[in-house]
Structures are given as C-alpha cells and as structure tokens.
C-alpha cells in the first residue's frame, strides 16, 4: 500500500482524519492500523478506540497527539483540503468526505439520546465539537 493511498484512505475510506479533527482528541499512532488479507493486500482497519476523551487540562487529551498541517489544534477546512490534495484526492470527493463526517457529528443529540447519555454530558461534549470544517 503506497503512502499516497494510505493518505487518501484516511480521508476518503471512512473519514478517519475528518473524524479525528472534528472531535476525537485520543489520536495517536496506536489508533491507526492496517489489516492484510490472505492475498497480501493491505487496507485500513475499521475504526476503534473512538470513545470521547477530552480533558482541557490533561496532557494527553488537551491537544491532538497527531498533527495535521503542523498543528495539533485549530484545524481548518483548508488544512484538510491541502492534505487531500497532497495525497491526490480530488477536492470534490474530499469535500464530500468531510461533509459526511461533519453531518454525522451534527446528529450528536440523536445518537446520545438513543445511547442514554446524561443530558449534562450531551451539552458539555457538544461544546467541544469542531463544526467549522465545512467548505465555506
């Protein structure tokens, strides 16, 4: 699997990067892995360890552990688009992948209610979402 294909997969193949920067602070190299099938073909593993873990005073959860565009916070739509371009993903597909993730995160209240998350936690968690990643 080429580095470019890995990069495209991280945006387009399940939206791992848009998901991480939208809200999952617990992003580190042990949370991204690959699987090889019997024919020797590699692919990105399904997402795992994506539970909410943000603590503004915690050294591991205050900032992202992995960087994007040289930053560990304050990501922009442009940062994602530069990454997408660098790995050869067309801008319309990158925008679509980003929009899918942001739209899913926007349904947080519905997901939280179905999961039985306490109302006080729903609001506290929602305030930390980065919903500014949509194309402007």
TrEMBL record:
InterPro entries: HipA-like_C (IPR012893), HipA_Ser/Thr_kinase (IPR052028). GO terms for molecular function: protein serine/threonine kinase activity. Transmembrane segments: none annotated. It holds the Pfam family HipA_C. Residues 21-107 form the HipA-like C-terminal domain. Keywords: Kinase, Transferase. GO terms for cellular component: cytosol. It comes from the Bacteria. Belongs to the HipA Ser/Thr kinase family. This is HipA-like C-terminal domain-containing protein. It comes from Pseudooceanicola batsensis (strain ATCC BAA-863 / DSM 15984 / KCTC 12145 / HTCC2597) (Oceanicola batsensis).
